[in-house]
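Lab manual, section 2.4: Encoding a predicted structure.

Procedure: take the sequence of the chain (278 residues), apply the prediction step described in section 2.3, and record the output as structure tokens. A sample record is shown.
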Amino acid sequence: MTRALIADDERLMREQLRARLKEVWPELEIVAEARNGQEAADLTAQHYPDIVFLDIRMPVMTGVDAARQIAQLPTYDEADGWPGCEIVFITAYDQYAVQAFEQGVVDYVLKPAERERLLVTVQRIKQRMAERSRPAAAGESAPAPLLPTHSPDMQQLLQRLAGQLNPSGPPKLQWIQASVRQSIQMIPVEEVLFFISDEKYTRVQTATVEALIRKPIKELVEEIDMNLFWQIHRSTLVNIKAIAGVSRDERGRQLVSVRGSNEKLEVSRSYTGLFKAM
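Recorded output:
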């Protein structure tokens, strides 16, 4: 059974959406309802739904920021087989957001949710889910397909929307202040080949410098320009211009070769769709 979460700070809107969903998708199970963005992110981490309906403007945390948190949740082998979720934004008047959603990266529903428009969204979701569950052909490997929450297009869209919802927010990082042996160095973000996190530190690698910072990947995604980097693993960001190619090892895992480094970076199953054409 397909499972969904609804997030809206207005109780009547939640009830109306739940009723409309029951009409157009009777088999859909609503596993939780959230009243703000933080609750939505927390309940997603608790229930691992297939679809999250997010009001774009909510207190405590916006739906956009909640989606960015959800995109950083562990998937597949990291979270007992959860492949991530579809995101559907609910909006009343954000015309700029509607224009962005029309690009096809993510679905949206205008308030109040009309049956006909919601049915279009449901049909799109069902089609995408069917495509992802399609068995691999003979001799074809079956990498996990890229979900909207894990695509560069989705991350860039969320970053743009977050900036529009909070135009007075901090600018994107231009420099990384990092520890290099016993000194602190200022590293231009555009010179970073990749970031890799472990439990305590994130390694910042350039062609000439290896440094450490105490900032996890999920925070860097919020602070750097995601037009410059692709996330290929929950713990790895790679500079798009530094990607030389992608190969597979004996276990079938995708490995990214990076210009200026002999290191090969593993692509986690959630992000293999990034290089599907290769």
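Check your result against the sample. The first helix runs from residue 11 to 24.
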